[in-house]
Specification:
Helix content: 40-55%
Number of strands: 9
Largest sheet: 7 strands, mixed
CATH superfamily: Spore Coat Polysaccharide Biosynthesis Protein SpsA, Chain A
CATH architecture: Alpha-Beta Complex
Number of helices: 10
Oligomer: single chain
Strand content: 15-25%
CATH class: Alpha Beta
Distance between the termini: 30 Å
Number of domains: 1
Order of helices and strands: HEHEHEHEHEEHEHHEEHH
Length: 267
């Protein structure tokens, strides 16, 4: 049985040439929409950290979805520079669909959800180890030990949203919307149950994973703002309320696990 790794390397870290030719054990999915200003800097920094700290062979899947700027062009250029980077293009802007598609395309044993403006290499190292015992590991911005350095309006909205999830949706955690790691075989049937395509997909996936009985763990993370939010506080609140109503409707529907959605994504 392969021993899960993820500790800082030194001489034990495989060379780039060894890892580039190996089957990935870790798949990092990163949705990207109109990220021309940040994508190259973020992905380049991530790759440097992965090279230095991750023992396992990995792939980074950039799921560009409906961008109207140079995001797709930049993503392809990055993939030409590093064979571990794969680019998936979706014609329509859809955060949830990008995540769903990326998970379906992942080849690794473990799947990690990172974002252009939010990733954490230390979380990835710890999460890979915890996935020996858990099916889902979530990076929490609000639990004890976390450091949320974003402006106070974003912190307030995050805490309020997660409070509503706990009070009215039975969410057993402190943060549903952030970086995550999964055992791919365990999470695929849950992804197939999910019905949302927008930003509510994050919360639906976590809640359905808990309701399915998957082993769940949270880890505190530090988050900084890489760029100003794209939405005003009022717009963000409106989006959050819409997401909650959407989530309420889809969770009332009886969706049995099916592999058909995942099969379609793989085609």
């Amino acid at each position: 049985m392969h021993q899960r790794t993820g500790n800082a390397g030194g001489s034990d870290v495989p060379s780039d040439s060894t890892r580039e030719g190996a089957e990935p054990l870790v798949s990092i999915v990163m949705p990207a929409y109109n990220e021309e200003d940040l994508l190259e800097r973020s992905v380049s920094a991530l790759m440097q950290r992965l090279d230095a700290t991750l023992d396992d062979p990995f792939e980074v899947i950039i799921c560009e979805n409906g961008s109207t700027d140079r995001t797709l062009e930049i993503a392809h250029r990055l993939s030409e520079q590093r064979p571990q980077i794969r680019v998936e293009h979706l014609p329509r802007s859809s955060y949830g669909q990008a995540l769903r598609h990326g998970i379906a395309q992942a080849q690794g044993r473990d799947v990690v959800l990172f974002y252009v403006d939010f990733w954490n290499a230390s979380f990835l190292q710890k999460a890979i180890g915890y996935l020996t015992y858990y099916d889902v590991v979530v990076g929490s911005k609000t639990m004890r030990g976390a450091r949320d350095r974003r402006p106070w309006p974003r912190r307030l909205i995050s805490r309020g949203f997660n409070l509503v999830l706990r009070m009215f949706f039975g969410f057993q955690g402190t943060d549903a919307h952030g970086i995550k790691a999964f055992n791919r075989q365990s999470i695929e049937p849950v992804v197939a149950q999910c019905l949302t395509d927008g930003e509510a997909f994050d919360s639906e996936l976590v809640i359905r994973a808990q309701r399915s009985g998957l082993r769940y763990r949270e880890l505190p993370v530090e988050v900084r703002e890489w760029r100003p939010t794209r939405y005003s506080m009022s717009a963000r609140i409106a989006h959050s309320i819409t997401d909650l109503f959407t989530l309420r409707m889809v969770l009332r529907q009886s969706a049995s696990p099916t592999e058909e959605l995942l099969k379609e994504e793989r085609m």
